[in-house]
Amino acid sequence: MGFFLETLLGGLMAGMLYSLVALGFVLIYKASGVFNFAQGAMVLFAALAMARFAEWVPLWTGIADNRLVTTSIAFILAGVVMFLVAWTVERLVLRHLVNQEGTTLLMATLGIAYLLDGVGQSIFGSDIYKIDIGMPKEPIMAFESTFPGGILINKEDLIAAVIAAGLVILLTLFFQKTSTGRALRAVADDHQAAQSIGIPLDRIWVVVWCVAGVVALVAGMIWGSKLGVQFTLSTVAMRALPVVILGGLTSVPGAILGGLIIGVGEKLSEVFLGPYVGGGIEIWFAYVLALIVLLFRPQGLFGEKIIDRV
Amino acid sequence: MFYRENGQFKTSYRADQQIFGITQDRVGVLLLIAFAFVGVPFLADEYMFRAILVPFLILSLAALGVNILVGYCGQISLGSGAFMAVGAYAAFNFFVRVDGMPVVLAILLGGVFSTLVGMFFGIPSLRVKGLYLAVATLAAQFFCDWAFLRIKWFTNDSASGTASVADLQVLGYAITTPLAKYLFCLSFLVVFGLLAKNLVRGAIGREWMAIRDMDVAAAVIGIRPMYAKLSAFAVSSFIVGVAGGLWAFVYLGSWEPAAFSVDRSFQLLFMVILGGMGSVMGSFFGAAFIVVLPIAINQLLPVLGHLFGFSVNTAALTHTEFIVFGALIVWFLIVEPHGLARLWSVGKQKMRIWPFPH
Amino acid sequence: MSKTIGDVILNVSHISLAFGGVKALTDISFDVREHEIRAIIGPNGAGKSSMLNCINGVYTPQQGSITFRGKTFNHMDSHDVATMGIARTFQNLALFKGMSVLDNLMSGRNLKIKSNIFLQALRIGPAEHEEIMHREAVERIIDFLEIQAYRKTPVGQLPYGLQKRVDLGRALAMEPQVLLLDEPMAGMNVEEKQDMCRFVLDVNDEFGTTVVLIEHDMSVVMDISDRVVVLDYGKKIGDGTPDEVRNNPDVISAYLGTSH
Question: Lowest mean pLDDT: which of A138-142, B43-47, C186-190?
Fold first, then answer.
């Protein structure tokens, strides 16, 4: 039983990481109706920026001993970089594809993903980097009284979960309560209509992609701190796609819940079913689950129903 | 001035419906095919065959299959790599497990299996489209990745997990030299190209395009969306599966599932986007472009490096490829969504009226 | 010109349609006789297009049934409706923008094509013969609608009036018994309207096609239709010949406002 709980908790924590990446997807979709295939690449790009800036800032500023200061400066610099990415993407790509159909935009974001991968690694390098933001690495043993030997909980994952929860609450409030949030939802519905009532599409898109970029930065930091920053980060982020399908493309809480379900499902199926089929279930579990959900409830758990009118 | 249709009047519907209506086109294409079969073998060297022509032919075939699904029928698919894999592994199993199985038959049977798998994973297209369908096809991709990696039976229980074939023969002729491989693949491409062209200009092609353009209206005029979509998946997967068999047997010789990963799916999709969605010729353009581009970058970048004084290592080459691909995709989608094929036909238009501007 | 109007061919019975809380149609019943031109009129939002969509199977009404040639359905399947012989045009033009005029019209013939996919791939024998046969049928429609010059033009490049003609042509290509026209003259100038009226009348006259027509232009409606149904806010408020409907006080107040 203890082992089962450990696996469960491990899955929840992994799921939290997926949710962080999925959050970026949902944001951009909710606010501009674009599905951003480049979200994974943005996570990698942001993580690379963060890792390298953390290395370079001490060299540039000469502050070698105060880690908190250098890390904070690196974080701000990385944020600025993500803002630049958002601005460039809007200026060079999105602006010219206003009101094109979803498939075209999707493929454009695919192109952006490749671009970000190439540019990111050219500028920041393609080795494996470490992100050290002072996250505690030691595990804690909890519930030692209930289960013999206690349950292993990773402190790092706990903090990640708290950060993710905080982000979710912030974002939900943003969409529901602010006028910018309302404007974003209008844009998601219909680009041209939103434009015609005076919503500044270009500025909105920069804002959204920037916010998604910062979310990607936070996700990248946490992932990178856990796994190291390397190219495979962007493919791992592809695992977040099924999360979004499961939770519903337009739902922030759905992204969280979807991430948790998939995280837990992956871990449990790998541990308990894996030995029977030669292992490696994690490769496809999330996607097949999303496929099944798609067949019966395409809008996911919390998404809005899609209606086609003639 | 060189390309006028003057005097070429059609006096029957049959003549009007030909694949190449303009005589210059028809003659040109026949000459090109003749040159491909007879001329190229004398002009190309082994490197050209191995590194450029054979991959170009096979990937053109695959891109043609993907174009039918994505370009003509509008069903986005990111699982083409998996369908190539199914074709390859099915052909492999028929070839090694059945005594005396001819190569061509094995490859075609591989295509049949790919059709079945393709139709199965095409079922979500009856309920969802766009991004959701993309995710469904990715499910196919990752599931097949895993299946061919972990299920030993598919690789004939080989210890290393790789499958390999050798000493291919067709009717007594060995397909081992680069020239023989080239002619073998060229034959497949020409035959399948013709069949595909016939399909897309016929009734089923119109059904596919109707579904792509407006599926609700298509149902109202009597087209069955289910039949149209599943047939698109079926035909597309068949062609892609055959291409997979060719890629494995003829180009690679021995392969692992990674040869058909999601990167391959993206590559095929890019060929279709760059070459021109909804165009048979566009598939060829796209494949040529994507096969030649990395080689061009490989040659060009060191030269630029010398000129501007920066060093170029293999990592930089890969990064440059990514950047160029990404930029081209975005550029084409913005400027010419119909790809190189549209640029080609615009060019022909200009040739028709040259030297007049319009 | 005299024509004989036949028996009831299409009967709409107690149809109610709602989207969430919005009632698009409430208890609508009317019939359509063979060979007649039946107009459906009403202010914007009255539910006219929704009514056609129910007949076509695009929407499923919560209540009511539709009877066509004696067979009653609670829910129409779009494909079956087409094969039964009911065709339609769309208010917002549902043309296949990626295809030429010829291909759009030929797509209307698809439900009559019998050769399977293998024959089509080889394009020999029956497949080739069928293509030519259907091409001939479509060319007759092209002649009828006077759009010969635009055969190979991609539909998206044509002016609006011509696109509407192609929409009509595609419906005609299905050789329907009943033709549902959803505002075929919307956005047209006087000459284009006259052309379209001529086409509608010719179709009704030469081929005997029953026409159900949604239209806003009163002069057109009064001129060419045999009987009229009036809808307002999803309810039927008038049903009869153009003259009867014209003098109906409910209809007058619906269009002009009750304070008149």
Answer: A138-142
Q: Which positions in chain B have a beta carbon within 8 angstroms of at least one beta carbon in chain C?
A: 13-14, 16-17, 195-196, 198-199, 202-204, 206-207, 209-210, 212-214, 216-224, 231, 235, 278
Q: Which domains does chain B have, with CATH numbers?
A: 44-353 (1.10.3470)
Mean pLDDT of chain C: 88
A188 and chain B: CB distance < 8 Å anywhere?
Answer: no
Q: Beta strand B163-164 with B254-255: parallel, antiparallel or unpaired?
A: antiparallel
Q: Which domain holds residue A69?
A: 2-233
Q: In chain C, which segments carry CATH 3.40.50.300?
A: 1-85+176-260
The answer to whether C59 touches C17, Cβ cutoff 8 Å, is: yes
To 5 degrees, how large is the angle CA A112–CA A117–CA A120?
110
* CB contact at 8 A, C61 and C35: no
Q: Which of B232, B234, B248, B230 is nearest to B94 (CA)?
A: B248
Chain A residues with beta carbon closer than 8 angstroms to that of B328: 111
DSSP 8-state secondary structure symbol assigned to residue B73: S
Q: Does A310 touch chain C (CB under 8 A)?
A: yes
Q: Burial code of C171-187, b = ≥16 C-beta within 10 A, e = fewer?
A: bbbbbbbbbbbbbbbbe
The tokens for C22 are: 């919005």
Minimal CA separation from B162 to chain C, in Å: 35
Whether a cis peptide bond, with omega within 30° of 0, leads into B355 is yes
- Note every long-range contact of A103-107, with CB atoms under 8 Å and residues 24 or more positions apart, other chains counting: A103/B74, A103/B76, A103/B130, A104/B333, A104/B337, A105/A33, A105/A34, A105/A35, A106/A34, A106/A35, A106/A37, A106/B76, A106/B130, A106/B131, A106/B134, A107/B269, A107/B273, A107/B329, A107/B333
For residue A306, give the nearest of A189, A219, A206 by alpha carbon.
A189
The CATH superfamily label for domain C1-85+176-260 reads P-loop containing nucleotide triphosphate hydrolases (3.40.50.300)
Contacts with B20 from chain C: Cβ below 8 Å: none
A305 CB-near residues (< 8 Å, 6+ apart): A299
A254 lies in some domain: no
Count structural domains, chain A: 1
Chain A residues in contact with C92 by the CB 8 A cut-off are 310
Are A43 and A198 contacting, i.e. CB atoms less than 8 angstroms apart? no
Which residue in A102, A115, A242 is closest to B130 by CB distance? A102
Quote the pTM value.
0.88
State which H helix or E strand residue B59 sits in.
helix B54-67
In the prediction, which pLDDT does A309 show?
A: 42
Does C22 touch chain B if contact means CB atoms closer than 8 Å? no
Which of B343, B299, B351 has the alpha carbon at shortest distance from B320? Answer: B299
* Chain segment B321-334, per-residue pLDDT in tens: 889 989 998 998 88
Contact (CB, 8 A) for B258 and B87: no
Chain A residues within 8 A of B131 when measuring between CB atoms: 35, 102, 106, 249
Q: In this predicted complex, what is the ipTM? A: 0.86
Q: Which residue of C has its CA nearest to A309?
A: C58
- Among B13, B14, B216, whose Cβ lies nearest the Cβ of C94? B216
In chain C, residues with a C-beta closer than 8 Å to the C-beta of B202 are: 120, 123, 127, 131
pLDDT digits (tens, 9 = 90+) for A235-258: 666 778 889 888 888 888 888 888
The ranges of chain A with pLDDT < 50 are 308-310
Among chain C residues, the shortest Cα distance to B19 is held by C123
